[in-house]
Specification:
Strand content of chain A: 5-15%
Number of helices of chain A: 6
Largest interface: A-B, 39 and 41 residues
Order of helices and strands of chain B: EEHHEEEEEEHH
Mean pLDDT of chain A: 83
Strand order of the largest sheet of chain A: 1-3-2
Structural class of chain A: alpha+beta
Radius of gyration of chain B: 17 Å
Number of strands of chain B: 8
Strand content of chain B: 35-45%
Shape of chain A: elongated
Order of helices and strands of chain A: HHEHHEEHH
Strand order of the largest sheet of chain B: 1-2-8-7-6-5-4-3
Distance between the termini of chain B: 24 Å
Number of domains of chain A: 2
Distance between the termini of chain A: 51 Å
Number of helices of chain B: 4
CATH superfamily of the largest domain in chain A: Winged helix-like DNA-binding domain superfamily/Winged helix DNA-binding domain
Structural class of chain B: alpha+beta
Mean pLDDT of chain B: 82
Largest sheet of chain B: 8 strands, antiparallel
Number of strands of chain A: 3
Shape of chain B: globular
Low-confidence stretches of chain A: none
Oligomer: heterodimer
CATH class of the largest domain in chain A: Mainly Alpha
Chain lengths: 107, 161
């Protein structure tokens, strides 16, 4: 088991968000997913690995192929649970930053 | 919008860590935690008392749009080292007598200078139990503080269509 990945870091990347949206409608193989991107295949594999490590994606073996599908439970869990808490602190810290920047320019 | 604030909360643990980098000198970041008027502004709460020193205590009061008190919160400072760290307790005092619902939490705030004009705040919060932590995490959701346009929610919405 690798080090636990930060889920928010995982979804901060635009390619990884695109992958999540892609597999939201149907399970896909790594090859089929990679075909949607200009980036190199190993890069896409790395993204898939990160998303799998934090349980946003799940793998399913069908014959010789491995299909990736979204783990909606995990997505829902994060959205419901931690995101509003994070957003609350993000809002507070954004205010703090604006406030103190104003102080900095008008001491 | 770029996500700047990160929350790391592992399943089954009774603590969590909030990290955030600021485009501010560490002195200003610290001042924003020590000056009662400034704290009131960014925390969105009334500051009844804030003694920014070791053994000092603080008391906040949060009201709704009609001016009714929603909750009070308070705590004491165990360490208060300018531009470096704050160690404090925090407790929600709810109007209802569910005193055991949230419990007292312990907060370690670490202020780090990155460059002359950037700094990082790391805030570790330790709760009484895993259940207490999870209950506290659910608070903003329960209070309907959920903001639109966050990316994850967008994805979930796309999912459930």
């Amino acid at each position: 088991m690798n080090l636990r990945r930060d889920v928010f870091q995982a979804i901060a990347d635009p390619t990884r968000r695109a992958i999540l949206l892609l597999v939201a409608s149907q399970a896909m193989t790594a090859g089929a997913i990679a075909a949607n991107f200009d980036t190199a295949r190993p890069t896409v594999s790395k993204h898939l690995q990160i998303l799998t490590e934090c349980d946003l994606l799940a793998q399913q073996q069908t014959g010789r192929e491995i299909y990736y599908h979204l783990n909606p439970q995990k997505m829902k869990e994060i959205a419901d649970f931690i995101e509003p808490f994070r957003q609350m602190w993000d809002d507070r810290f954004n205010k703090l930053e604006v406030l103190m920047k104003a102080q900095q320019s008008n001491p | 919008m770029e996500t700047k604030t990160k929350v790391h909360a592992e399943a089954g643990k009774q603590d969590l860590t909030i990290t955030r980098e600021f485009a501010l000198p560490v002195e200003l970041l610290f001042k924003a935690h020590a000056d009662p008027d400034i704290v009131a502004q960014w925390m969105g709460t009334k500051v009844l008392k804030l003694e920014s020193k070791k053994y000092g205590s603080y008391q906040f009061e949060t009201t709704d749009a009609q001016g009714n008190v929603v909750f009070r919160s308070s705590g004491v400072f165990h360490e208060f080292v300018p531009n470096q760290k704050i160690t404090r307790t925090f407790e929600m005092e709810l109007a209802t007598a569910q005193t055991d619902l949230f419990g007292v939490q312990l907060e370690f705030l670490d202020f780090k200078k990155l460059t002359d004009n950037t700094s990082r705040l790391t805030m570790q919060i330790v709760y009484r139990s895993v259940a207490h932590r999870d209950q506290m995490l659910k608070m903003p959701f329960a209070q309907g503080l959920n903001r639109a346009h966050n990316r994850l929610q967008d994805i979930v919405i796309q999912l459930t269509r």
